[in-house]
Write a structure and sequence with these properties.
CATH architecture: Sandwich
Order of helices and strands: HHEEEEEEEEEEEEEEEEE
CATH topology: Immunoglobulin-like
Number of helices: 2
Helix content: under 10%
CATH class: Mainly Beta
Bound molecules: calcium ion
Radius of gyration: 18 Å
Number of strands: 17
Distance between the termini: 29 Å
Number of domains: 1
Strand content: 25-35%
Largest sheet: 13 strands, mixed
Shape: globular
Length: 305
């Protein structure tokens, strides 16, 4: 695998818009020495998760009782809200409206993720059902998982890439959906833009690429994903439990030949059951195009304990 870290992309990706206070000054001072050692992932102090190795069987059924004792990370503060595309924490009514705790474990074959979402109004999907790209899984209640399996920090990844992913797991009590990388190369295509109600625009991707919905619900159990997932409605929201393989990742503890894996998670909240997303929790705290650029992910470290 050859990974080219494109410096012009790094600038374009919006690190300067980081939500992390003090990053710019710290980055200027430490950038040359420290950033390569941490693969350029989010510098936010909280955006590193240390995953312990699975000791007990994990049944992928949405019942998270088999995760008791595993340390979770909770997102229930305004600092976790993605600011962009018209969204922020402005409409947030507190942790009952939207908050989440996630946990990660691993073994030699798989990564395992459990997410306990608190959402006051859990809606059935609408965007995921539309064929066109005017709305999509990004407007539905659900969980986005991002992986840079080999930790290379590549800035652009496309449909068919087995090692770099943006997954959308869309909640439904009847028919949940899974989508994978939404972009494909198309030389000469203009830069995709997100248009806000006031007519202003924000970059959605890079020039020369176009959005395509890539639903993988039926093939998620097969290679390269080898996945399994389950949602379960709860009194205060819903749970998501996922298992999948990470091709290109060395599934070993960091002190036993393993390496940092790029990882990010976002929780999407639509409380109207229609229209645009209301708000989004985003772990790594980076407000650039984290859905295009692995360097804006957080860091996942595997531990052998
Ligand atoms: Ca379970
Ligand atoms: Ca809500
Ligand atoms: Ca909701």
């Amino acid at each position: 695998m050859i990974c080219v870290l494109n410096q012009s992309n790094r600038t374009k990706s919006g690190r300067g818009h980081s939500a992390c206070p003090g990053f710019v000054l710290v980055g200027l001072y430490l950038g040359i020495v420290v950033m390569p050692a941490v693969y350029g992932f989010s510098p936010c102090s909280w955006a590193t998760y240390y995953a312990s190795k699975r000791k007990e069987p994990i049944k992928i059924d949405g019942d998270l009782s088999d995760w008791n004792g595993v340390k979770g990370f909770t997102m229930a503060q305004e600092k976790f809200f993605f600011a962009g595309q018209g969204m922020s924490s402005a409409k947030w009514k507190g942790p009952e409206d939207l908050s989440a705790t996630f946990k990660v474990q691993w073994d030699a074959r798989y990564i395992y993720i459990a997410v306990e979402v608190t959402d006051d109004v859990v809606t059935e999907p609408h965007g995921a059902l539309v064929k066109g790209t005017e709305t999509g899984s990004w407007d539905d209640d659900g969980v986005e998982l991002m992986f840079d399996n080999d930790g290379c920090g590549v800035s652009r990844y496309y449909i068919g890439d087995p090692m770099h992913h943006e997954f959308h797991f869309v909640y439904s009590s009847r028919h949940p959906y899974v989508f994978d990388n939404f972009w494909k190369k198309q030389p000469g295509a203009p830069q995709p833009l997100f248009t806000l109600p006031d007519g202003s625009t924000e970059p959605l991707a890079y020039p020369g690429e176009v959005m395509v919905k890539n639903e993988i619900t039926d093939v998620f159990p097969k290679p390269p994903y080898n996945g399994a997932y389950a949602f379960r409605r709860t009194a205060k929201g819903y749970n998501l439990e996922v298992r999948m393989s990470l091709p290109g990742a060395r599934m070993a503890a960091v002190n036993e030949g393993g390496h940092a894996i790029g990882f990010d998670i976002a929780i999407n909240d639509n409380d109207a059951g229609k229209g645009l997303l209301k708000q989004q929790l985003h772990w790594s705290g980076m407000n650039g195009m984290f859905w295009r650029d692995c360097k804006l992910f957080g860091t996942l470290i595997l531990l052998n304990k």
